[in-house]
Amino acid sequence: MEEIALENESRKRPNYGRKVGMKASEWWANVISATFQPYISKNSELPQGLVPALLTRFSSGRGYRLFPDVIPFFRNLKEAKQKLQGGGNVSAPLVGVLTNSDDRVSSILSSFSLSVGAWRYGTDLTRQQRPNGSQIDFDFVALSYDVGVSKPDPQIFNATKDMVQMSMGQDLRCIHVGDEPEKDYHAALNAGWESVLLDRGEAHTDRGISRISNLTELGRFLEA
Q1: What does the DSSP 8-state code read for residue 92?
Q2: What is the helix (H) or strand (E) element at residue 19, kind and residue range?
Q3: Cys-Cys crosslink for 116: which of 93, 106, 179, 216, Cβ 3.0 to 4.6 Å?
Q4: For 196-208, what is each residue's pLDDT tens digit?
Q5: Which residues contact residue 157 at a Cβ distance below 8 angstroms, ignoring those fewer than 6 apart?
Q6: CB contact at 8 A, 204 and 181
Q7: Distance of alpha carbon 142 from alpha carbon 128, whole angstroms
């Protein structure tokens, strides 16, 4: 039922309602109402407080579960970035979120004690205004909500690369890591990026696919 409600709301009001001037929270309230309405008696209303309670829950870490390798991976990555910046010869990598989602992403990540910079697609931050990348986990955020298109459309990859490249003033090596073969792995390749499939269940063993089963294995791709 939830999938039907999502599809219907997306069809009526695309991009989490942004295309019609609606806030993402209002869009999700419609989805929640449409999902639960069939399970209550006719002409009855949803329980008071249900919609805001669910919106609050799924705007924070309380609505999600992190895999155990996530926090250690970002802790180690932050340490590696600090060492690279201290060395002076090699630029530390920029790490960002490129996702099909609305503007709750930063607050959700922050609730897991993952630090997110203010550099977001559509904002106009100069390089000097951005936080020191070695002190944060995510340097930038590129949301389908802001770009206006979703993966697997190559435009969201192109827009993200252009945003970072214009700020950095240099060519970039772009690597995308995602868990969906079509929307993530192949979409990134089609946009000219390097791509790694995060295949936690080891369900995609096709030859020729660059894949990892957990984030700790990502190091060999970053070092290549």
Answers
A1: P
A2: none
A3: 106
A4: 999 998 888 877 8
A5: 98, 151, 174, 176, 187, 188, 191, 192, 193
A6: yes
A7: 19
Least confident range of 83-97, 139-153, 190-204: 83-97
Per residue in 96-133, pLDDT (tens digit) is 999 999 999 999 999 999 999 888 998 876 555 555 55
59 and 29 in contact (C-beta within 8 Å)? no
Length in residues, the chain? 224
Separation between Cα atoms, residue 26 and residue 194, nearest integer Å: 36
The answer to whether the pTM exceeds 0.85 is yes
CA angle 77, 81, 86 (to 5 degrees): 150
Report the alpha-carbon distance of residue 61 to residue 79 in Å, rounded. Answer: 24
3-class DSSP assignment, residue 141: strand
**pLDDT score, position 88:** 57
Q: What is the pLDDT of residue 222?
A: 72
> Strand, coil or helix: what is 43?
coil
Q: How far apart are the first and last CA of the chain?
A: 45
